[in-house]
Amino acid sequence: MKKLIYSSILASLLIGCSGGGSGSGSTITSNSTTSTTQSKGSTKEINREKERLKYDKNGRVGSIETEAPPRDVASTKDAIITAEGKNGVEIIKIGYKDELSSEVVAKIKKDNSGNRIDAKRVTLSEDEQQLLIEKKGGRIVVVDISNLSRPKVVGERPKRVSDNSKTTKSGYRYIPMGENGMKIINLSNNSESYQFKSSSIYDIVLVDHETKALAAIGASGIQLLEINNTPLKPTSKAIYTIKGTKVTGLSLNKNEDILFVATGDQGVLVFNLDILLDKLSK
Fold it and tell me: How far from 99 is each of 36, 48, 87, 135, CA to CA, in Å?
């Protein structure tokens, strides 16, 4: 059963500012248990058509507990997909009406050869019809998720640079490199690149019309970067520190107003993006 964890760990969240081949045969388990909990404390309401979500002053909506600590998270309009190491991958339907709800609809445990997947990262294709699972060793397991509750492993291939990177419309590619920071490439001039080393970077999402970026920087939390004026050399604007955990994955839903944060032992934290950005920009 998935549980939603709300105000119990809010006191530990601190805001800090700083410079600087093909086939089929995956193992899938279904589970239809749904759990909902309403957040407490000081709240506001988000009005999106008939949907209303409550959040705290930092934009925190709640938290989703996963079967094993999530290393990474990807999201569709109404689901999240988590990479959970030797536990494989979970696909969790998310509900946004009145309060946050979660429902595990499938699990992916084995690759096309029947070997257990040690899932490191998860990425979606542009049309959200394929899931790319990076397993230990760097190979990519390709999964058809056109039906989220019945995912199907369709092949495997080597890892590509583009699998874990973000590219702006203006042609700059941002490649997280873990403890080595992040490599930035100007695709119009491949000889022009920069190694951003001010912090470890495990994942990145582009926000605010690609003028800024949020980076998962491990034990330090989430870093806000300004990339508009100097895309090759981002400027650190602020850091959101999450005590007692390591942030290694970030994902935005289709509408880009909900941010999912993979935090290991604390599960997947859920934020209203606009509120969090506003807090970090002050």
Answer: 7, 13, 28, 34
